[in-house]
Amino acid sequence: MALRIVTTVCGLYTILVLSGCSIGMALSGEKEPNFDYIAVGAPRNQVEAEFGQPAATNVLTDGKQEATYKYEMANSPNTGRAWVNFYVDLATFGLAEPILTVIELVQPHDEETRIVYGADNRVLEIHGYTPPPISKVVIDAEDSQEKYIERRRKPQPVPTEQTSSPSPQ
Fold it and tell me: Is there a domain that residue 2 lies in?
């Protein structure tokens, strides 16, 4: 009987200790580059602020250089994802933790982008990973949200009470 109690307590302790893995993984990671700043004509220092230092650089003809940047996508710290993992852990008494941890492990992926710079250190060409375009549904939703916000900001006319005054006789 005592062995069964000790085994149960140790098992519960192990589940409790290991239940934070997916939460910790969701809260850690590297920020993804913002591709809005990476366009033809952008200066090199702006690109490197997003990608970091290039993994390799090749000198081309006419003073051009090709820089290869390696980075990880889908591994940004995300408190929302961490809270979801926490609530799923609570709802399943930690039994979903192995599944959530595997999801956190397979989600990130390595990417590579090659950028050709001109002699003036401005972007001439971009090759490799580019994020998918924003869907029309998202754009329409943002537009309708903006209209709603603008409508709320405009002062609404206050109805004035009309009082009827007695006519002089």
Answer: no
Look up the domain containing 119 and give its range: 18-152
Distance CA 112, CA 80 (A): 27
Tokens representing residue 165 in the block: 């005054």
* Residue 6: inside a domain: no
Whether 48 is covered by a domain: the verdict is: yes
Inside any domain, residue 90: yes
Tokens of 133: 């375009």
**Exposure letters 79-117 (e unless 16+ CB within 10 A, then b):** eebbeebbebbeeeebebbeebbeebeeebeebebbbbb
pLDDT tens digits, one per residue of 120-147: 999 999 999 888 888 888 888 888 888 8
